[in-house]
Amino acid sequence: MPPDILINMVRKMTPAQFKAAVNKAQRQQKQAIDNYNREARRHNAAVKKAVSDYNREVRAYNTKARAHNSKVENQRRRLNQEIRRLNSRPATATFVTYRASVETLARRYTETEQSLAGRTITPAGRDLVDRGSEEAANSAYLLNAMDGDGAAEDDPTEDELRGPSMQAELATFGEDLVDRWAGALFSLSPSNPDAARHFCTSAREVLITMIDSAAPDSAVTEADPACDRTDKGVPTRRAKVGFLLRRKGIDETPIEDLVEEDMDNVLGLFREFNNGTHGHAGRFTITQLSALRIRVESAIGFIHALCAT
Asked: Which residue intervals define the domain Predicted pPIWI-associating nuclease in the entry (predicted)?
């Protein structure tokens, strides 16, 4: 546009028009600044929220990790304590086979921890190893309780001893197992001379059914046609354990050895009672029956963790 025309246009703007133009420019500038500040505040708030959320997640993770590590350390201390109590007394003529199994399971857990030290394993594998310390501690505590060295101060009442438990874990395998476990618990009574034997018979069926349901013969042989088999041609329990571990992405021989040792321990316990070699008259105290229940409950939780997908 020619300069003379621009000059004429400027000359034609009245003071009121000029003031209005200035005010408009100022409003536009203020609006632009407000928009920028608003977007800056929104961005800063989003960054602050993201940092806050991250820090909250980190704190929650650290809290959970500390709680988990504390629980694991407590179980390890408890295992060492139970083994010391066991070794402080002369070996008795009762539960000889089971005592050997308890000692072997404790060693197997320690060896597993040592062999995996410094290595990265899956969370599922870590969970099973951590549960292994609880299994070993509960097996040692049971043996101590059977020898009269249990924690009587922690005894439940008779009603609590027979109360329901492990329902959520067993329900994943069917309500029949929930009912069967309830029947096993119902048999626990200091006045029942066959309490331990009846309990162990039912508990064994529960544990075996859990494994067989999660690892049916057909699935195990399809996954590994060359798997170990029994004399009857069906997959061995160890083959089923290996199948369940691989399904969880766990391919660690030490963990497989630990799981197998734990199964030997708890099933060997049942054999001790069912074969009548425990050397007791048949009646057990609430302390002893509670220790027996605790041992089997932890085995149910252990197998549930092994079978969970």
From this structure: 173-302
